[in-house]
């Protein structure tokens, strides 16, 4: 019941043209089904094994988004079905996605993860790195991937002014990329930013995808080992 209520409340606030990704990581398949029963079809996971396991047992019209750090050697497990990979952070990874997508006769949509937060641990390209990356001629050889936008995470802080300014800089980068001459397989249209604590601010700043977990499913219980 609580999931239905949370989801309905959030959906009321989600802007038209913005996609709500229900982040179901650590929550069992039954919880995903509760959200599914309310009509939710887009789910996000941050671990390859967990996403693949849920894909196996859950309805096949669910769109699975990989939102967490992805290792090249694990791409093969999600390549047959993943709808969007939010966390491309290197050419090597993108090349592997391309290789695996070809095996399954698919074109896989990807977002480039951008590092805007203060924390050092976050993966992703800096703003200048992404500008160079997008101009890299080797991108043109990757015909089974399509870069459809960028993803970013704000700093983990109570300071909402800082969070907002990080979202603003992501939006600015998004617009800059859009206005650049781009290779054929780069079509910048998605700006994935905003989580449970900051998705409203992210939407105000122009987000097209929000990734909301705990505000829908409740607190996550991580195993202690
Ligand atoms: C877990 C996670 C989310 C959702 O976080 P909540 O705070 O629970 O909404 C969003 N994006 C990424 C990349 C995540 O790993």
Which strand-content bin applies to the residues? 15-25%
Average predicted local confidence, pLDDT: 95
* Ligands and ions found: pyridoxal-5'-phosphate
Sheet with most strands: 8 strands, parallel
Q: Rg from C-alpha positions?
A: 17 Å
| Spatial order of the strands forming the largest sheet | 7-6-5-4-3-2-1-8
Helix run count? 9
| C-alpha geometry | globular
CATH architecture heading? Alpha-Beta Barrel
* Number of structural domains: 1
Count of extended strands: 8
The CATH superfamily label reads: Alanine racemase
InterPro entries: Ala_racemase_N (IPR001608), PLP-binding_barrel (IPR029066), PyrdxlP_homeostasis (IPR011078)
Family: Belongs to the pyridoxal phosphate-binding protein YggS/PROSC family.
Cofactor: pyridoxal 5'-phosphate
Protein name: Pyridoxal phosphate homeostasis protein
Please describe the topology of this protein.
Layout: H1 2-13, E1 19-23, H2 29-37, E2 42-45, H3 48-57, E3 63-66, H4 75-78, E4 84-88, H5 91-103, E5 108-114, H6 127-135, E6 145-152, H7 160-178, E7 186-192, H8 199-204, E8 209-212, H9 214-217
The protein binds pyridoxal-5'-phosphate.
């Amino acid at each position: 019941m609580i999931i239905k209520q949370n989801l309905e409340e959030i959906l009321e606030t989600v802007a038209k043209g913005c996609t709500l990704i229900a982040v179901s990581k650590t929550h069992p398949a039954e919880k995903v089904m509760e959200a599914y029963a309310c009509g939710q079809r887009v789910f996000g996971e941050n671990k390859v094994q967990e996403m693949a396991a849920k894909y196996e047992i859950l309805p096949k019209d669910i769109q699975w988004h990989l939102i967490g750090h992805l290792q090249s050697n694990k791409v093969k497990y999600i390549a047959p079905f993943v709808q969007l990979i939010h966390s491309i952070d290197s050419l090597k990874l993108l090349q592997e996605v391309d290789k695996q997508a070809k095996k399954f006769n698919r074109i896989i949509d990807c977002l480039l993860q951008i590092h805007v937060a203060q924390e050092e641990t976050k993966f992703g390209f800096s703003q200048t790195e992404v500008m160079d990356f997008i101009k890299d001629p080797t991108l043109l050889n990757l015909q089974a991937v399509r870069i459809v936008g960028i993803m970013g995470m704000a700093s983990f802080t109570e300071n909402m002014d800082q969070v907002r300014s990080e979202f603003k800089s992501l939006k600015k980068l998004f617009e800059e990329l859009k206005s650049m001459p781009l290779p054929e397989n780069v079509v910048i249209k998605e700006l994935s930013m905003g989580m449970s604590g900051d998705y409203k601010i992210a939407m105000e700043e122009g987000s097209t995808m929000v990734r909301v977990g705990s505000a829908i499913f409740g607190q996550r219980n991580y195993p202690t080992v």
